[in-house]
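Changelog-linked ticket: BIS(adenosine)-5'-pentaphosphate example.
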Amino acid sequence: MLNLLIMGKPGAGKGTQAAKLLKFYHLTHISTGDIYRREMKKGSDLGRLAQEYMKKGELVPDDITNNIVEEVLNQKKYPHGFMLDGYPRTRSQAEALDRILSDLGIKLNAVINVHVSDKVLLERMAGRRVCPNCGETYHLRSHPPVKEGICDVCMTPLIQREDDLEKSVLNRLNIYNRLTKPLLDYYREKGLLLVINGEGSAQSIFKELVTRLGDY
Ligand code: AP5
């Protein structure tokens, strides 16, 4: 079993690397952002509540997010291990995760931090387009769809995420620096942190990650 956590600033490429690592190691993906976007699409009460925070680039309150992650992890649907993506994002979430994993008798193997400069992030988020149907992610320059504006996988017209508009992006970066960045020290002190340069091509970053995870 390989249990990973992937961290990084908004737009660092967490989702892109997570998708590759999931396939390679047969891991179960637990992305709190994806969970909230699915609930928004369904129009559930949780989705409506999350949308209020997400469109402004703010975090959904910790108790709500912790309960969701606890419920998913308690289902134990991760025969080969899991990849937590976008969680934890605050000290209180990290402490809740420690408790949940300890109750389950599970350990994290590594915490990946994908490091990218702010200039690159802003360019990535401005160019990101997503499929509202299957969730596939593209970039206008580095990873365009075959047919302009249309998802390669399911042929649905692509959209720009509401929280990728500039005002929201700057708020997300601010929140990351204030609340999430300190978690790097939290995991470094536990000997779990693996920092990777996220500015190469998606494939070269993935190759380096696999080489470095080889030790686990
Ligand atoms: P979430 O969905 O987790 O968003 P995020 O952390 O802001 O991360 P992103 O999805 O924006 O970026 P990414 O790092 O996955 O980058 P990607 O691979 O797409 O959360 C969204 C919101 O949900 C939060 O703001 C919050 O409101 C709420 N939420 C979620 N979790 C929460 C929690 N724990 N607590 C409270 N609230 C929570 O790549 C970005 C772009 O770059 C793409 O276009 C991609 O194609 C391109 N790209 C990727 N890699 C490369 C590369 N190497 N070279 C060139 N282009 C690349």
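Closing comment: Example verified and attached. Residues 4-128+176-213 form a domain with the Rossmann fold fold (CATH 3.40.50.300). Residues 8, 10-16, 32-33, 36, 53-54, 57-60, 65, 86-87, 89, 93, 124, 127-128, 137-139, 142-143, 163, 172, 201-202, 205 surround BIS(adenosine)-5'-pentaphosphate (CB under 6 Å).
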